[in-house]
Here is the input.
Amino acid sequence: MSLPDPVLIQVPERLETERLVIAMPHIGLGQALNAAICESLAELRPWMIWAQTAPSVEDSEAVVRHQVARFIERSDLVYQFYLKGPQGQAGRLLGGTGLHRLDWAVRRFEIGYWVRSSAQGQGYVSEAVRALADMAFTQLRARRVEIRADALNTRSRAVAERCGFELEGVLRRDALNTAGEPRDTCVYARIAAL
Here is the structure.
């Protein structure tokens, strides 16, 4: 059985939870994304290679446009999540999430996430991760969804555990941290019921 061209796969562009709107990126988002990243550099810097220096608004807009292109190609499904307004509209940008390292043949995806500093500790990331995982299993027919986290990133690991992902193992010295030193990666996963 041949795999359909991934660009033909229907992927939701917007999800809603009780408190959040989770939406694919859109052109013109660069300024809001830039503000969230610049606010959060100190917390993001130890874990995110892309958060080592403050980007310009133009840099952030270029990132958004590349995210849009990859979303359309179905090569990387980045979403931003927003506080949900009273009429269901997207309010303040809170952070980013997405399905990465897509393997459409296996139907395996990896969830990544970050949240702006002023929105930490309020459960927004867990809410977004649960919604994204549910969408992956139901609408995208995922067989496996992973979360990978630096072994020292206890907050990220706690999100995976709160969202029902099981620690399958630790890959020792499998990647480099932001300082270029070897690090261990914890691999969490949920698998589809047979």
Observations:
- The CA atoms of residues 159 and 166 lie 11 Å apart.
- The chain is about 30% helix and 35% strand.
- The longest strand covers residues 90-103.
